[in-house]
Amino acid sequence: MNFYNLPLYYISFTKDFNIECNFTKFGFSNIHHFEAIDGKQYKPADLLQKKLITVRAYNDFIHGRHEHAGLPSLGAVGCALSHYNLWKLCISQKWPCIIIAEDDCVFRKKPTQKNINDITSAINKPNGIFVSEKISNNNFMGSHLYFASLTACKTLLENFLPIDIQVDSYISHLAKISLLNLKGYPIASPKKHKSAIQDTCIKCKLPNNNYFYLGIIVALVLVFIVICIVVTKFFYD
Description:
Elements: E1 8-12, H1 17-25, E2 31-35, H2 44-49, H3 55-63, H4 74-93, E3 97-102, E4 105-106, H5 113-123, E5 128-131, E6 145-149, H6 150-158, H7 167-176, E7 181-184, E8 189-190, H8 202-205, H9 210-236
Parallel strand pairs: 1-2, 1-3, 5-7
Antiparallel strand pairs: 3-6, 4-8, 5-6
Helix pairs in contact: 4-6
C-alpha cells in the first residue's frame, strides 16, 4: 500500500488551493475536493419526515441540545451527510482505505515512519479506523482528519441513518460497542477558527443528577431564611 497515494478527500464548500498545498507539501499526492453539503438548506421537520434524523435529534433543534454529542445546528447535519457520502464513495470504488479531512485540517509536519506504521496497522484490522485525535476510553472529539478502512466505511454506513449524534461521537459510540477498531493520536491539528457548526452549549456542561439541583434549591432557601433572620433582628433590636 502506497500510504501517500491513498485517496484523500477534504470537505469544503469550495476548492481550496491552500488546503491542497498543505497536503502536497507533506507528501500526499491523491488529493480531491468534496463539496460540502449545506445543512442550512434543510428544515428540521423535513429531515425528521424523511427519516434523516431521529426524534431526539429533532428535539435538539427545537429545544437545544443537552449533551455535546447532540446536533448543535443544521450545519452539523450537512457535515454528517458529507462524511456519509464519502463512506459511500469508498465502498463504491472498493478502495482499501480513504482519508477524510475537513477544511480546518492542517499538517504541521510530515508523518513519521512510526505514524505511517501505526496508521497502516490500524486500518489493516477488521473495521479499522485511525483518527488524528487523542483517544480516551474510545472517546475523542473532532473529525478533522481520519483514515477509514473499507470495512469501517461499510460499518459506518450501515448504522448511520437516521442521524442522531455528531460524526466524532458516532465513531466513538461504534468503537465502544465493538463495531469499530478505533486507534489514533494527533498527527494533524484543526485550525483555530470560529465554527459555523458548533455553538456554546451551557446545558451540556450542567449535571444531570437531580440531587444537584435539589441541593441548590435547599441552599437558596437556607440563605433566604438566614437573610430574613438577620434583617428581622436588625430592625427589632
